[in-house]
Design goal:
Strand 2 and strand 3 form a beta hairpin. This protein is 32% helix and 23% strand. It has a five-stranded mixed β-sheet, with helices on both faces. It has 152 residues and is an alpha+beta fold. Bound molecules: coenzyme A.
Length: 152
C-alpha cells in the first residue's frame, strides 16, 4: 500500500499470522496485561468484517501498530454506512513517526473505496493525546452525546 519503496513504514492488511504480534503490542499498550482471549474473539470478529478494514503497520519489518475499522448500520441511531475507527494503537517506542497517521490515512482510503465517507471515532474527553492526534489528521468534534449510569 506504500508506493515509496524507501519508506520504512509499511501499512498492510491484518493476517491471521499477526495474532501473536498484535497480542504483544496490545500488552505493551496496556502495561503488560496479556489479553489473548480478547484478541481471539476480536480476530474472529475481524474475519466477519470487510477484510480491508483491519490494518497493521510495520516498521523495518516489525509489527508496531494497528488500526481496525467497522461500518455501522444504525447502531446508536447513527446512520448506516458510517465508518468507525474502532481500535488504534502504536507501539510506545515508535510514536510520533507518523505510523498512526499512515494507518488512519489507509483506513480512510479503504472506507472511501467502499463509498463510506463519514467516519466517527470515540475516546474519553480527557484523552489529550487522542484529541491532538485525530485533530491533526482532520477529524473534528462531532455531535454524539455519551450517557452513562453506575448501577449500585
Ligand atoms: C494516538 C496514537 C495512535 C498516535 O500514534 P503516532 O504514530 O504516535 O502518531 P503520529 O506520529 O501519526 O502523529 C500524527 C500527529 O498527531 C499529533 N500527535 C500524535 N500524538 C501526539 C501527542 N502525544 N501529543 C501531541 N500531539 C500528538 C501530532 O500533531 C502528530 O504530528 P507531528 O508528530 O508531526 O507533530 C498513539 O499515541 C497511541 O497508540 N496511543 C494509544 C492509543 C490507545 O489508547 N488505543 C486504545 C484504544 S483504541
Amino acid at each position: 500500500m506504500n508506493h515509496q519503496t524507501e519508506n520504512p513504514i509499511k501499512v498492510r492488511l491484518l493476517k491471521s499470522d499477526d495474532f501473536n504480534s498484535v497480542v504483544l503490542l496490545d500488552s505493551k499498550l496496556r502495561g503488560g496485561e496479556n489479553r489473548q482471549d480478547y484478541w481471539e474473539k476480536k480476530f474472529a470478529i475481524f474475519r466477519m468484517r470487510h477484510p480491508n478494514l483491519s490494518l497493521v503497520a510495520e516498521l523495518d519489518g516489525h509489527l508496531v501498530g494497528y488500526a481496525m475499522g467497522n461500518i455501522s448500520g444504525w447502531e446508536f441511531g447513527v446512520s448506516e454506512c458510517t465508518g468507525w475507527v474502532e481500535l488504534i494503537g502504536v507501539d510506545p517506542g515508535c510514536r510520533r513517526l507518523h505510523l498512526g497517521q499512515e494507518l488512519v490515512a489507509e483506513l480512510l482510503h479503504q472506507f472511501r473505496s467502499l463509498n463510506v465517507v463519514t467516519i466517527y471515532t470515540l475516546f474519553t474527553a480527557s484523552n489529550q493525546e487522542m484529541r491532538k492526534f485525530f485533530s491533526s489528521i482532520g477529524f473534528t468534534e462531532g455531535q454524539l452525546i455519551h450517557f452513562q449510569i453506575n448501577i449500585p
